[in-house]
Structure formats: structure tokens, C-alpha cells
Target: Amine oxidase domain-containing protein
Amino acid sequence: MNDPVVIVGAGLSGLRAASLLTARGIKCMVLESRDRVGGRVLSASDPNRPDLDKFDLGPTWFWPQYERAITNLVKELNLDTFVQYNQGAMLSERSLSEPPERHVLPDNPYSTSIRLAGGVQSLIVAIADTIPPGVVELETRVTAIRQDEAGAITVEADLADGKQKQVSASAVILGLPPRIVARHIEFSPSLPPSIIADLRSKPTWMAGQAKAVAIYDRPFWRDSGLSGFVSSWVGPLQEIHDASPEIGSGALFGFFGMPASTRRKLGEDKVEELVIDQLVRLFGTSAQNVKTILYKDWANDSDTAVEEDMTPLREFPSYGQPPIVGEWEKKIIFAGTETNSQFGGHLEGALLSAEQAVVEILELKNKPL
Model:
């Protein structure tokens, strides 16, 4: 049989796996529930100034000194990068009744964070361009994976027009968050309880988070010797960074300390109002001159988060490969950043998991590594 390897999810892991497989001459298809590729990678434009650079509402950085897979891939794809701006003082906001404290950090206090020109979406686009047309099918939501007594695999999916699709597969790579797999995909025969428990135990990275980007004409805070880096105990943003592109405009982005349930109760308009109020407290009245606010609450994204992800993470999760045993061994392979034990939660983890999945497929098909 010449059934394709079916990859579920067109995020970074799924696309990288498809790119590597097709380069090796292995037939595959990628089924993606969203109407776009990228998964949790999302780089958005200012709707009023689409000519400006894009701003990341998902992952933002990588670290070349530690992360070989993404560093090598960025070079291979000839993508432009630049260093995260961190010159100047940081602010520490501990109380609403006192002004923020200003701290001058020593040179290179942290590992150098690297950003991609055009946002991380530029990496997604470049990988997608290496995949032949027709391999990726959008708005195709996988609902079930079945295996008959002879071991033949069928993947079932719902289409946007209400129709259903069935695909025969030689193997399946699951490039989805483990909790999404456990919640939304039916397996027949059922996955063993040990695997289901493992999938449910892995919090989806970023699923309880939201990001806001405030776009300005220019990075005015730099005039005051500020780096744009803020640590806040009073919020709503608990960590803020300079998100300005190399040229063209200024921007600040922040991660929320406010729980997902609170954001949901307040609503997007009120949350954005609180964000601007905080930026004015920190950076002065110039921060009122916001041109656009971009906002993405990943907790409201049903392709990313499940109810268990609403609880804020208190410590870094324990990530790694689920223990596949029994009838599904060598039939399904897990990929995605949550399945990498060393770099779980990073873009690097997503790429390494894709590479490992491809190694397993090559072994199954007796292809040279």
C-alpha cells in the first residue's frame, strides 16, 4: 500500500515534519482545522499600517547559543533576524501607590534573544513554501483515528462545508497539543488509560495566556534611557518587552498576570483599557498615543486550549513523549513542543519533536536516516 503519512496539525511541528518527509520522497498530507497554517505561531499586522513589520502574538524569540535546530533552519532558509532590544534601564512595578523603580542592568545579563524580521510567521511561511502544493488541507478538523483488525488506519475529519472526509494512512503524526488530542480525537481501539492520563497531564504551552501589543509611531521610551523591559506585580501585564521592529514604528508587548477567567469576565475592551492605563503609569503620557492594540487571548482559542488550561501555571511543566504501547505502537507518533523533554514550550522543542517523528517514520519504512 502507498497510503500517505497523515500529519494532524499545520503548526511548526506539523509543517516541519511534512517538509522533511517530502524531501525524502515520502508521501504525506497535513490536515489542519484552522483556516491558516502556523498553529500557535501568529504574527499580525497593524490593520491601519499593513506596510509595517508584523508583530508576534505567539512565540517571539529563539536563543542561538542553546538552540541548534532553529538556528540552523533559520540559516538554511536565509531568514533575516535581529537582536531583541534591551539597552537601557528596566522598570519594576511593585505597587499602584508608588512609582515604578528603575534599575540599570549589567551588560548582557541574559542570554541574547533573537527575533525574526517579519515575525515568527516568516519561519512558518518559509517552511510551508518547501512543501508541494496540495499537501496541506486547511479547515479539515480530524475527529477520529481508527485501526481495523488488519492494522489499516483510517483518519476521519469534518470539513468546513459540513461534509466529512476519510483518509487511509500508513501512520499518523499528531502535531497537536496533547490535551487537544485527548479531548477532541476519538481512537478506535481506544488509547490505553496510561496514554490518556499522560496526555491530560501536559499543560498546553501558552494556552492560558494572552498577549497584547501596543503600537506607536516610534519607540519613545528609549529617549528616556528605558529598554522597554518591565516586571510588574500589579498588572494587568506582568512582563513587558520592547516589540519594535528594526525600522518603522515602536511597540511594546506584554504577557498577562491576570488569569484567563478574569480576562474573560472583563471582556477585551476593558482589558485593553487596563493595558493602556498600565503603560501610562510606567512610561508617561506619551503612552496614551497608541495607534493600535493587537490582542490575542489563547485561552479563548478552541484549537489551542481546553478547560484544564485555564488554571495559571505555577511551575514549568514536565514535558516529553507519551508512552505509546499496545495496538497503537508504531501507528501514531506524537510531535509538538509539549512532547520534547529538553525544550518543551519553545520553538526549538517543536522542531526537535518533528525531527524525531520523521526519524521514526523513516525507521518504519526502512528508509536510511
In short: The CA atoms of residues 89 and 359 lie 46 Å apart. The helical segments are 12-23, 68-76, 121-128, 178-184, 193-200, 260-266, 268-283, 347-364.
